[in-house]
Design brief:
By secondary structure, the protein is an all-alpha fold. Helix content is about 70%, strand content about 0%. It is elongated and about 60 Å long.
Length: about 200
């Protein structure tokens, strides 16, 4: 078995264990057993359980982050369309990562903790790319705003919390209302023509 395959098996093992167990109660020995290898092999690839978890988060968001970087360079596409494509990819990744099927974690706080870790990683990693897209929109006069990094962070925080729908559970109508409110604020605050930001709800 190649080193890369073993590395992936370790991440798969932790993800499977997270379906029914709290992260804090999962041991490296359990991860090793689920991965079908010795505990010593785990430490060849990762220094700790936390390092395995961080790698699992990074793997989950690898595709949307690559998408974000590619879109930031495509100045021929509207900044709003590029933003929407990023959000769509991230929303799909978030829901797939902790897809439980018919299994519901007994401890909702644990599920919220895990989602918080995922969203924190997503926001910090996506902020530079989204900031660049907004900056390009400012340069092309599609967006009128003086603080692209702040705007990127605000949009990411609101969207990840509402679309993830774990930290602040809401009905579909409530989510839609929040997103429409965000769109209205962005349009008025950035001088964007009405309707241009409706892509954000895709």
């Amino acid at each position: 078995m190649s080193n890369q395959l073993k590395y992936e098996k370790i991440l798969d093992a932790l993800q499977e264990l997270l379906v029914n167990k709290k992260l804090q109660t999962i041991s490296v020995s359990e991860i090793a057993q689920a991965a079908g290898m010795g505990k010593g092999s785990i430490y060849y690839y990762f220094p700790s359980k936390d390092a395995i978890f961080e790698a699992l988060i990074q793997r989950n968001y690898q595709k949307p982050l690559e998408t974000a970087k590619n879109l930031a360079a495509q100045t021929d596409i509207s900044p709003f369309t590029r933003m929407a494509m990023i959000f769509q990819a991230c929303t799909f990744s978030s829901s797939e990562f902790l897809k439980q099927g018919d299994t519901v974690p007994a401890d909702i706080r644990e599920k919220s903790f895990l989602h918080q870790k995922y969203m924190s990683h997503l926001i910090s990693e996506l902020k530079p790319e989204l900031t660049e897209i907004i900056r390009q929109g400012i340069e092309s006069n599609d967006i009128r705003f003086d603080y692209p990094a702040a705007l990127a962070e605000i949009v990411l925080i609101v969207l990840t919390v509402k679309l993830d729908n774990t930290l602040v559970p809401s009905s579909g109508e409530e989510i839609e209302e929040t997103l429409q409110g965000l769109i209205s604020l962005l349009e008025k605050g950035t001088g964007t023509p009405p309707g241009a930001l409706n892509y954000l709800t895709i």
